[in-house]
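Saturday, quiet lab. Running sequence design on the structure tokens for the scaffold JK sent over.
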């Protein structure tokens, strides 16, 4: 994998790109997107490299459960505060960064 294929490992988890943290566990990080597409746009990632939802790589079996639990908590907070929330992940050619990540968002797109 080329280094530019994984923004999360290369920039966020390395500390090169500063982020505003929403929630964190020992193995999962949720933060406000650095270039939001929606008014509320939070990204939730595992702290170890996991290629995608359909390719968990060498991730331990329980990491996905922990990741989904953080997504659930963040989505519940967004829904409570804003009345609605979306949760999505991209796969294949839709996945710009080849590191499993979920978007938790609310509102109409800021750009088309």
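Result came back. Writing it out in full:
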């Amino acid at each position: 994998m080329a280094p530019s294929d994984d923004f999360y490992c290369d920039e966020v988890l390395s500390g090169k790109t500063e982020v505003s943290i929403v929630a964190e566990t020992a193995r999962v990080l949720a933060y406000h997107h650095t270039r939001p597409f929606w008014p509320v746009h939070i990204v939730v990632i595992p702290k170890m490299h996991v290629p995608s939802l359909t390719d968990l790589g060498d991730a331990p079996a329980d990491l996905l459960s922990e990741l989904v639990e953080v997504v659930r908590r963040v989505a519940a907070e967004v829904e409570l505060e804003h009345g609605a929330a979306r949760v999505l992940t991209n796969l294949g050619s839709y996945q710009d960064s080849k590191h499993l990540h979920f978007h938790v968002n609310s509102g109409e797109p800021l750009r088309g």
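Notes for JK: The helical segments are 7-12, 63-82. The chain has one domain: 3-93. Ask whether to fix the surface positions before the next round.
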